[in-house]
Structures
1.
Amino acid sequence: MSSNKFFFVFKDSLIESDSASLSIVSLRNPATRNESKYLIRRTSEGSQLYEVNCFNEHHRSWFINESVCSNGKIFLPTPIDPLFLALPYLVAECSERAIPLDQILIDDSFPHTSNLTDVLSPKRMNLLADEKRAGNILAFKYNETKTLEWLVSKCHRLSRVVSKQEGPASRSLNYIKEEKENETEVEEDEKATLHTALGIIADYLSLELGRKLSTALGFPEDENISKKRKSIVDLESAVVKKLKKEDIHETTPVKLPGAEKKVTAKAKALAKAASGSKSISSFFKK
């Protein structure tokens, strides 16, 4: 039996290069700020960041060669824009002053955060911040206007991709244009796909920034972002409580109270009559 093995699904382009090195690191989730797993792929041409998604079902194992891997999880790395991970540090540290990138990405609880400098270029940092130079020192100061413009543009690009996908979450705009003649209805469907894109992008943002993005896209009364985040937090809390409860039951068996016995009138009478009598054994005592 083997449980210290993991099953990954990679695209050929990730592992086809002999010079490519892959490493799994723990970094802060940009939205929840909790620990999440990411993959960094390094080659002679550069480095890329991937989010490690996990698919897990109970009672699942893998047969690897002649051994059984009891860890039946499937890990699927997908590309992620490293700007999402840098954004919370930029907001926290560079709202009032300009700081060099290598000093921004420091987290004592997650030392691998400094590796984000390998996958981030100063040119892309200009999408979120203002560049400040002093000699050879290059520093960045957070710019909320630039950040919202970048996020709005990202939502619109994602919306166009979502509109071409088949499935219950979206419908093809080509189909809509062929079947619907009312331009108002077409606009409503385009707005719906944009709202779907907003939900996807907001999963990588803080609640405050997610609300600002919602307003910038024309959804000022949208509360789905906070409700969705709250439902995730409530679900995680429920799972933790369930696990703690199961641990308590394993160590301390719970005794259920027994059912109360009903006393009949006949039993009461017999008990009263016997209250003044002596035990039969008392007659044989000296």
2.
Amino acid sequence: MFSCKVRPFLALRSGAAEYLGQFRSLTIGAARLEKKQAELEEAEDADELPVTFVDDVESVEAREERIDGLRNKSRLLTQHRNMLHDVLPYEQSQSWIHETVKYRRMMLGRYGIEGSRTDPRVCFPTKKEAYERAEYEKVAFPFTLRQMMDANEAAQKARKAATEAREAEIARKLEKLDQWTSDLNAKIEKKEREARAAKERKDRLVEEVRRHFGFKVDPRDERFQEMLAQKEREDRKKVKEAKRKEKEEKMMEKLQKKTAELEAEVDVSSGKGKK
């Protein structure tokens, strides 16, 4: 029974403790909020004061520079940040390159006249540069545009004529291809015929030598070789004589034909004279 009376008391006690904790947290939060608000009011009052009373230690320029440094979260260099924002990278020349004509022309083309703070006359050549350029063009390009066009046209015509001549030559040779092929085949056949005839003649002479001795003789024997050489000489004489006779017969045929033609012409002329 005692425990039944104590339990409600303990529950009431724990609830009171929880309530006191929440009250204490709210009190602390309110105090902190009041302190923060007071700081903000003091900061606003400080901003409303004249600039001469804001900071007695650092100047306005130093303060602005410090604020700009705090704003630069990218940690880029000044020239790089300027390029990022399309501003001239350097306020003052940092190298001899920045004084060259090429660099100044490049800055003028990129940032304009006001942005680059460059005299636009730097883009035009000087008298010396214009003279040197004219002299260079005289040497590098000695011909006028019309002369170069005429030369190009003449070269094209020459190439076209050469191509046409080459094509005509190829066509002409192609027309003779069949004749050349037949001539080549005839030459090959003639060579083969001559080779067969020479072999047959050699075999015939060897057989004649063997018949001359009347017994089987080694072809490497000196007597066989001498007799074979003698037979070859005799055979060459016979062949030469046969060719001479054939040539004489051909000459006689030509003479007879020529004589017959002359006689026919004489007869025709004499017949005309009688008339």
